[in-house]
Amino acid sequence: MRVMKHPAMHEISIEQVFYALSDPVRLEIVQKLCRTEEASCNALDGGRPKSSVSHHFRVLREAGLVWTRNEGVSHMNALRRRELDERFPGLLTVVEAAIFARAGANAA
Amino acid sequence: MRVMKHPAMHEISIEQVFYALSDPVRLEIVQKLCRTEEASCNALDGGRPKSSVSHHFRVLREAGLVWTRNEGVSHMNALRRRELDERFPGLLTVVEAAIFARAGANAA
After folding, report:
1. Which residues contact B39 (CB under 8 A, 6 or more apart)?
2. Looking at the DSSP assignment, which residues form a beta bridge with residue A77?
3. Strands B66-71 and B39-40
4. Coiled-coil annotation: which residues (chains A, B) (predicted)?
5. Closest CB to B89 among A16, A97, A99
6. Residue A97 in contact with partner chain B when CB distance is under 8 A
């Protein structure tokens, strides 16, 4: 199984982070990761085909938002919360609030 | 002179806002608008040709970030700060901090 590449925090830009968050599928993945320590791709993909979501996971990884590790045949994903909080203080908190407000609005 | 269209705040999505912020030219415009009440396109375009920046102003308007009004032959632009703060509490504050941190890093 190939090893995933993850950027160092100083390598990521705020533009990249915003771009990664500009898609509803990726926002849904981030929203789920906000509520859990770690989750498999299967638990996060909303039943979408692997071919369609693997791109989104890559964008999230390359933007520094998500860390993916291999566990057996699964990929386990986690938000890089501590590092993101250091690099862009407060960002993840407001992003979470906005995502959950959005989810509430969509459900209403 | 044509009248600019602006979405109502309930019409904009957080994805759109993040997309609008995912480009360095648009971030630069937002950064300048953070420091001023209102500014003309000329004062914000960083000397870029009108053909290139008018697209960026449109993206910012359509995402609900910027309000543009005609004043004589100029377009005057302002952040929709109060409305954005109501719709996505805290977002603009963190965005500003991230943009200015980024500007500092770029200048260093």
Report:
1. B32, B33, B76, B77, B78
2. A39, A68
3. unpaired
4. none
5. A97
6. yes
- B43 lies within 8 A of chain A by CB: no
Residues of A in contact with B89 (CB under 8 A): 94, 97
Amino acid in the structure at residue A24: P
Per-residue confidence of chain A (108 residues) as pLDDT tens digits? Answer: 567 889 999 999 999 999 999 999 999 999 999 999 999 999 999 999 988 899 999 999 999 999 999 999 889 999 999 999 999 988 899 888 888 777 666 665
Distance CA B61, CA B78 (A): 10
Beta bridge partners of B100: none
Judge whether A101 and B84 are in contact, CB under 8 Å.
no
The minimal CB distance from A21 to the residues B18, B90, B102 is found for: B18
pTM over 0.80: yes
